[in-house]
């Protein structure tokens, strides 16, 4: 039982010490409106920015402060009117450095210096030989090492000249290579100076998510002059960007630990010790009373308060789980914002490219005219489709007509063939036997006559030349032939008659 009591007491002391430590280290952050500016009422109607002073080529509007416009050799700056009344601070600067060039110049500077700088100085628009801190957003690559845009801090004690030719690499305290030009959202920098530790958190402007800050640099043992001034400045050169600051929000840290002495800490410890002893005494007293009231029970009801029950544990686990879910959702949301930012950037690039391609269409060669409607592409238009349909319909009609015609022709051919089969019209009539035989007999007769004539001719030829008186004349020969033919014909007619008479008797 004694060991349990001791454990409870130790736990209580640990709890008190822990809560004290947390309270001691819980830094109170306070917004300092006298060292800040932000839209929508950044500048007043007369152009002045409350609690700030600007000059050179700087212009303040209700929405932003343009430190240096995108014109050649411009310089401008803005400084707080009053020195700072606190030592630990954070400055949250939202800005846009944008220009049409692939590279820009010269850049922007954040200052915390013992005295205000000038409005047309040599270091990004403000004074050289500054005493304090300068953080430079250096757009232009003076030393040609291809390492710009670059962000870096340079400390100065009021004696050194800034090494422009080397982009301050010989003097820089710390820095990081980050592109801050032409971003879809404003780029942001949080400069934090607390307990001699200087940190710069940078937001690359690819989203508008508050969680997207990343560490650019952290430097320890940085001693800055007290009660200095905040300033912002910018300059352009041969190349020029717009340098716009959208807001400058200052917070101060009221650090109780820094003001609390070691003596106070000891007093607190003594007080805690007394509280613990008092508590222990009361606990013992309560235990004694409880034992008197409940002599049989061994269990200490007060102990329940020091240990969590099942339901409490469950509740705690649920709470932790929900916290994890919340963190994951927050992370997803951040990534989604990033994607949206990138997409918007890509879309704008695509739009630009499409515009460029559209303007690069070559004109048609001479003699070739763009069809009506100004269209010169190779896709099919509505009226062309209609024309094709009409042509197709005409072809279909013609094919139908041809088919009809062929069918008619076929029908007619069929009719002709049928008629032919039924009543042939080109039949040859047979010749009678008698006439045939008669003709053949006449041919035989003519042949024998020819033979007889040739014999006579050969005999005449053998006798020599024909005597003028005793030879038979041509007329008499022809008469003989005619008589002979008549005799043959007469015989034939006689024979036919005789045969037809003979047939009648059968
Ligand atoms: Ca430079
Ligand atoms: Ca460089």
Give the ligands present. Answer: calcium ion
- What fold name stands as the CATH topology of the domain at 28-254? Jelly Rolls
The residue fraction in helices comes out at 40-55%
**Terminus-to-terminus distance:** 174 Å
CATH class of the domain at 28-254, please? Mainly Beta
CATH architecture of the domain at 28-254: Sandwich
What fraction strand? 15-25%
Membrane topology: Single-pass type I membrane protein
Coiled coil: 269-300
InterPro entries: ConA-like_dom_sf (IPR013320), Intracellular_Lectin-GPT (IPR051136), Lectin_leg (IPR005052)
Domain L-type lectin-like: 29-253
Describe the structure in your own words.
- The longest helix is centred in the middle third of the chain and has 49 residues, at 310-358.
- The N and C termini lie far apart (174 Å).
- It contains 7 helices and 15 strands.
- Strands 1, 3, 4, 6, 11, 12, 13 and 15 form an 8-stranded antiparallel beta sheet that branches. Strands 2-5-14-7-8-9-10 form a 7-stranded antiparallel beta sheet, with no helix packed on it.
- It is an alpha+beta fold.
- Among the domains are: 1-27 and 270-305, no CATH class; 28-254, Jelly Rolls, CATH 2.60.120.200; 307-337.
- The protein binds calcium ion (2 copies).
- Residues 138, 140, 142, 167 line the site of one calcium ion (CA).
């Amino acid at each position: 039982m004694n060991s349990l009591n001791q454990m409870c007491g130790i736990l209580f002391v640990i709890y008190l010490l822990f809560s004290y430590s947390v309270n001691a280290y819980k830094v109170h952050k306070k917004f300092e409106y006298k060292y800040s500016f932000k839209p929508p009422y950044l500048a007043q109607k007369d152009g002045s920015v409350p609690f700030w002073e600007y000059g050179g080529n700087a212009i303040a509007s209700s929405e932003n402060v343009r430190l240096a416009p995108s014109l050649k050799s411009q310089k401008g700056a803005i400084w707080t009117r009053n020195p700072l009344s606190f030592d630990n601070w954070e400055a949250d600067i939202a800005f846009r450095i944008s220009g049409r060039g692939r590279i820009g110049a010269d850049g922007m500077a954040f200052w915390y210096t013992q005295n205000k700088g000038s409005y047309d100085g040599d270091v990004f628009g403000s004074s050289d030989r500054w005493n304090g801190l300068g953080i430079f957003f250096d757009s232009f690559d003076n030393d040609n090492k291809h390492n710009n845009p670059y962000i870096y801090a340079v400390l100065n004690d009021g004696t050194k000249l800034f090494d422009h030719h080397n982009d301050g690499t010989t003097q820089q305290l710390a820095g990081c290579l980050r592109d801050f030009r032409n971003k879809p959202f404003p780029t942001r920098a949080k400069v934090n100076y607390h307990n001699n530790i200087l940190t710069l958190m940078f937001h690359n402007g690819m989203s508008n998510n508050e969680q997207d800050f990343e560490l650019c640099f952290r430097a320890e043992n940085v001693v800055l002059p007290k009660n200095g001034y905040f300033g912002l400045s910018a300059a352009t050169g041969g190349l020029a960007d717009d340098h716009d600051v959208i807001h400058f929000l200052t917070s101060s840290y009221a650090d109780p630990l820094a003001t609390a002495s070691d003596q106070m800490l000891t007093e607190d410890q003594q007080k805690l010790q007394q509280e613990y002893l008092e508590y222990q005494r009361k606990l013992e007293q309560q235990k004694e009373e409880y034992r008197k009231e409940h002599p049989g029970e061994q269990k200490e009801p007060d102990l329940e308060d020091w240990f969590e029950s099942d339901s409490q544990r469950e509740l705690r686990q649920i709470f932790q789980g929900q916290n994890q879910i919340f963190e994951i959702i927050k992370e997803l949301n951040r990534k989604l914002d990033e994607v949206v930012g990138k997409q918007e950037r890509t879309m704008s690039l695509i739009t630009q490219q499409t515009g460029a391609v559209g303007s690069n269409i070559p004109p048609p060669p001479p003699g070739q005219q763009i069809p009506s409607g100004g269209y010169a592409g190779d896709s099919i238009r509505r009226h062309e489709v209609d024309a094709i349909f009409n042509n197709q319909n005409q072809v279909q009609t013609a094919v139908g007509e041809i088919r009809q015609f062929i069918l008619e022709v076929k029908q007619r051919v069929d009719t002709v063939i049928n008629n032919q089969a039924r009543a042939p019209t080109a039949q040859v009539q047979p010749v009678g036997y008698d006439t045939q035989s008669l003709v053949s007999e006449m041919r035989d007769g003519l042949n024998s006559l020819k033979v007889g004539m040739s014999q006579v001719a050969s005999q005449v030829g053998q006798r020599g030349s024909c005597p003028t008186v005793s030879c038979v004349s041509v007329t008499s020969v022809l008469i003989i032939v005619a008589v002979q033919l008549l005799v043959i014909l007469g015989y034939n007619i006689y024979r036919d008659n005789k045969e037809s008479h003979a047939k009648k008797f059968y």
